[in-house]
Amino acid sequence: MSIQARRERERAERERLIVTAARELAETEGWDAVTTRRLAAEIEYSQPVLYSHFKGKEAIMAAVAVQGCADLAVELRQARAAAPGVREALAAVAETYTSFARRRPALYDAMFTHLVPLPFATQEAPEPLREAFGRLLAAVEPIAADGEDPGLLTETFWAALHGLATLTRSGRLPEPAHEQRLALLIGHFTGG
Amino acid sequence: MSIQARRERERAERERLIVTAARELAETEGWDAVTTRRLAAEIEYSQPVLYSHFKGKEAIMAAVAVQGCADLAVELRQARAAAPGVREALAAVAETYTSFARRRPALYDAMFTHLVPLPFATQEAPEPLREAFGRLLAAVEPIAADGEDPGLLTETFWAALHGLATLTRSGRLPEPAHEQRLALLIGHFTGG
DNA sequence: CAGCGATTCTAGCGTTGCTAGCCAATCTGC
DNA sequence: GCAGATTGGCTAGCAACGCTAGAATCGCTG
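Above: the input entities. Below: the structure tokens describing the complete assembly.
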């Protein structure tokens, strides 16, 4: 059985290679540059190999999105841990979230903008997704008023951050006032 | 000069035809179905004709987006006019906005999700865009606290609505609780 | 070492957005 | 009223896309 084990190991390694190459290519040149041909060349295999690992391009993007959620979760955890108080933690998390979207647009798009075949709002959602949401929840929960469902409040807050991030990045909201909008949002959610 | 006038009239009419066909095709079958070939067949002309009117497919989508903004502006105006009070007006506008995104997803995507070559946050933005934003502003302005910039507050509120709309429609937020999230948002923005 | 499976590659299909160059219909000047 | 110029649409085709069938090659087994 050792030989089959090695094969599966190599296979898993190559799958990791594909996802990494797709992520790096997307982050440096955008998702439009991530074609199956280009990606195959990058990993030094032929095109059809990709399809022996993933159902199609969307599935590769989904895998990248999951990785991205893990990254985001780490950043959010650090941001919250470094903040002295409840309100500061929320602000830090919000700032980190929108900054993540600005710094890593391709990754963010795969996670939250593009249509990817991923279960999100269910228990079958991949762990990194639930993890990232959990980091938001941890920051929002303390500011929930009596009778407010923390989960729903987190979803609402998340949506607001997502809207700010995407509209700003697409040029529909002017960049400069971003911090002020963020402050307004925090203010209204912390009841100030 | 009358003959040239007629030509320009016919040309403008055909341009209207292109935009309308693109919008209808997108609304019924999604933007993926709007290929240049399909669109050309729909208007009963050949492909290259499209390029004598628009620089490319993106420009056609942009034209559809502008139409969509006009439609949205009308709906928002009606919603606000029918509401008895300030808070109700805000709720009605929010409800109308997200419902628009749900009822006309292709149109909404062209307006606010897809990358379209349109100036947004500047004075050169097409009139329907500024009009739609103005409808939001009119609903948000009355609930702005002292010292809060109504414009910035409107942008923030808009972003929240946009986030709710897109995340819900892409399945990242569960549909059923949408109304509750909307209520939470309104609550926090009206300081309740 | 021969044969057999599994796996990778070559080649190609159907579509996409977009464009070059031909061709015909229309307007202008004699 | 008619030849010449011009506008404008159409046919045909390019390069690139996601994806797949079938050939070919690799590595293990007896």
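Note for the figure: Residues 3, 35-37, 47-48, 50-51, 56-57 of chain B lie near DNA strand C (CB under 10 Å from a C1').
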